[in-house]
Design goal:
about 5% strand; mainly alpha; single chain; about 110 residues; 5 helices
């Protein structure tokens, strides 16, 4: 039971960020150590500062941050489908098909 910001640098190391210009995250990942790690990986961060921080949010691209919020909302809608949330399928291809079917239902608003 550890906070996500403590294991985030390991995740940044495992992901190929060579083609990534900006890494977006929410306020829970507001850490100077994580920001330095992202800069060391060769990309920029788009992480808002917490309210109790003395630094400002001048570095933020709020339009890009709103797009991140849309992606999170899409995942929340997908998790409403029980088979997607609990991953009933054993095979990767079957699970991908289930996610695609759930996306189709969301898109068609059935």
């Amino acid at each position: 039971t550890t906070h996500d910001v403590k294991v985030a640098p390991d995740l940044v190391d495992k992901v190929n960020l060579s083609d990534t210009e900006v890494l977006c995250a929410d306020k829970g990942y507001d850490s100077d150590a994580l920001r330095a790690h992202i800069e060391q990986a060769g990309t920029h961060d788009n992480i808002p500062r917490k309210r109790n921080t003395k630094s400002s949010n001048d570095h933020m691209d709020w339009d890009l941050y709103k797009a991140r919020h849309l992606v999170e909302n899409a995942f929340a809608k997908l998790k409403q489908y029980r088979a997607v949330a609990t991953r009933f399928d054993k095979l990767k291809q079957s699970y991908e098909n289930t996610v695609a079917l759930a996306c189709a239902y969301i898109w068609l608003k059935l």
